[in-house]
Write a structure and sequence with these properties.
disordered N terminus, alpha+beta, eight-stranded mixed sheet, 6 helices, Glutaredoxin, about 170 residues
Length: about 170
């Protein structure tokens, strides 16, 4: 009975069910990080390889209608300011195409994280994303491997521990 209820909830309200999950789905760990190019909120095309200069990349995928995506982006915005001088770059990939709504959303959260728009969900499709928000940490070096993959929201302390684990000392 419980399985039927969960399957129905997933079918009818995927964002709600996904948002309640805080689980490690590390199946992408060790996979190659794919290069991509999407428009930023000013309409300029941005290549992911600009982040490859001695940094690791923390990438969040999500959309505006997902409450946990907003929660996670808020936490990442705070952390981005604290880690700005470290060898990590933060990037938000949104499945939205309304740049003005995304700018307003970022301003409300105090986020200075660059947002790129992927309204067709190409990156999510490539990685076979099953739920949002998705957080990836990738090494941006010659090997370009995914070091960390998680679906769902995370608390700030856990995010800090994960980031610190991968920072070059």
């Amino acid at each position: 009975m419980l399985r039927i209820l969960i399957l129905t909830a997933v079918f009818l309200m995927p964002t709600l069910v996904i948002a309640q999950g805080n689980f490690d789905s590390g199946d992408l760990q060790g996979e190659s990080f794919v290069d991509f190019q999407f428009e930023n909120l000013d309409g300029k095309k941005v290549d992911s390889d600009i982040y490859r200069k001695g940094n690791i990349l923390l990438l969040k995928m999500g959309n505006l209608s997902c409450p946990m995506c907003t929660s996670l982006l808020s936490k990442l915005a705070k952390l981005e300011k604290q880690y700005r001088s470290k060898s990590i770059k933060f990037l938000d990939i949104s499945f939205e195409s309304d740049a003005s709504a995304l700018k307003k959303h970022a301003a409300e959260l105090g986020s200075e994280i660059e947002t790129l728009m992927d309204p067709q969900g190409l990156l999510a499709s490539y990685y076979q994303v099953q739920g949002i928000p998705v957080t990836l940490i990738a090494s941006i070096d010659l090997e370009s491997k995914i070091l960390f993959h998680q679906v769902g929201d995370m608390d700030e302390e856990y995010l800090r521990k994960v980031i610190d684990k991968f920072l070059v000392k």
